Recover the amino acids of this structure.
């Protein structure tokens, strides 16, 4: 039983779909499936075709989203970036952009582990400096902090409408509500193996019309920094657009056929459910048990219902022992990854096929007994 915050357990149909032979990557059978995947992703991102946005599906994991930001949204290399850090994954994104793309990244971190972003400080920073990009992690999987992306994005827009808003939604797409168009977001990246319920291997993202314009702008700046080829959206956009449009497929590089076929099934299954509400109620139920019945403390600060709905991060006195005991009855949960508290807590995934109330009760009961 897999109860970690990604990769998650998939349904039988999603897994069976992986075992098919390849289809012609530019042929009508695969193109039809890829088109449906893109249209279904629009529903999950809440973004219309008319907005001029484009969903993207590339071979890779969630981390590829970091490189998509670094190699496409900072074309001059001189952009000013503001990164709102709420845990380990925000810090990883910072490392990527700062160390590997040599970008100018200012970081505003939550004051306490498990806490959110100080709005007053953010406001001051936005008044003082104009940032080209503001980046945030929707759910930081190390702390369970759920950022109010709508509010943060609104605040950034009110001070600096030109700033592009980038969101790491690897652990939120498919379990939290995301309103790409309404919230005025510009680039949101995720992955196949968390709340979307598909196997690992796909980087899934969406880009706004104005960010696309930046990406596709002709440049003859000889000083522009070198950027990788495979992550170049300039190369990918015409291909993905052709899949969404239908008709003749524009080839850039071969998509992972089987993974996209299985994602198609996973998205259809997800869209048949009320996934945001389901995650919310299951998460609230589990956390109330943990806090009220078991008298344990959550890593995430603030009211339970405002913490991430795809995982629970819980302080326990003996994390490795709890994990070992659960492994003994074939249940995998995750340990801590936030460097400041790594050995002090466990993380229980609330996404995927196995994350049923019944299975979660087994975890809690085992801990209590
Ligand atoms: C899992 C995760 C990542 C990394 O995704 P990979 O698929 O492991 O590369 C990045 N950000 C967040 C918030 C995550 O939960």
């Amino acid at each position: 039983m897999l109860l970690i915050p990604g990769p998650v357990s998939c349904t039988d149909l999603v897994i069976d779909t992986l075992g098919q032979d390849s289809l012609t990557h530019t042929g009508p059978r695969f193109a039809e499936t890829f088109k449906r995947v893109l249209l279904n992703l629009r529903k999950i991102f809440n973004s219309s075709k008319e907005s001029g946005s484009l969903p993207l599906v590339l071979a890779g994991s969630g981390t590829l989203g970091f490189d998509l930001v670094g190699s496409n949204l900072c074309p001059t290399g001189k952009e000013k970036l503001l990164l709102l850090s709420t845990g380990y994954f925000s810090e990883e994104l910072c490392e990527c952009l700062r160390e590997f793309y040599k970008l100018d990244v200012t970081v505003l971190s939550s004051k306490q582990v498990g806490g959110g972003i100080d709005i007053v400080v953010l406001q001051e920073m936005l008044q003082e400096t104009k940032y080209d990009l503001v980046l945030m992690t929707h759910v930081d999987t190390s702390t369970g902090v759920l950022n109010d992306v709508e509010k943060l994005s609104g605040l950034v827009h009110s001070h600096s409408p030109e700033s592009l808003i980038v969101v790491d939604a690897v652990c939120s797409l498919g379990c939290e509500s995301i309103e790409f168009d309404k919230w005025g977001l510009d680039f949101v990246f995720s992955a196949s193996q968390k709340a979307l319920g598909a196997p690992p291997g796909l980087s899934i993202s969406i880009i706004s019309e104005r960010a696309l314009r930046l990406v596709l702008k002709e440049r003859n700046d000889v000083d522009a920094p070198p950027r990788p080829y495979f992550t170049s959206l300039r190369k990918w956009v015409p291909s993905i657009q052709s899949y969404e449009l239908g008709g003749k497929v524009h080839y850039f590089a071969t998509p992972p056929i089987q993974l996209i076929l299985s994602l198609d099934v996973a998205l259809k299954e997800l869209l048949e459910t009320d996934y945001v509400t389901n995650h919310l109620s299951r998460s609230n139920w589990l956390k109330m048990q943990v806090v009220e019945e078991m008298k344990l403390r959550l890593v995430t600060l603030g009211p339970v219902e405002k913490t991430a709905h795809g995982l629970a991060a819980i302080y326990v006195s003996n994390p490795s022992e709890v994990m070992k005991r659960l492994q003994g009855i074939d249940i995998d949960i995750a340990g801590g990854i936030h460097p400041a508290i790594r050995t002090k807590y466990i993380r229980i995934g609330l996404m995927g096929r196995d994350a049923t109330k019944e299975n979660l009760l087994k975890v809690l009961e085992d801990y209590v007994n």
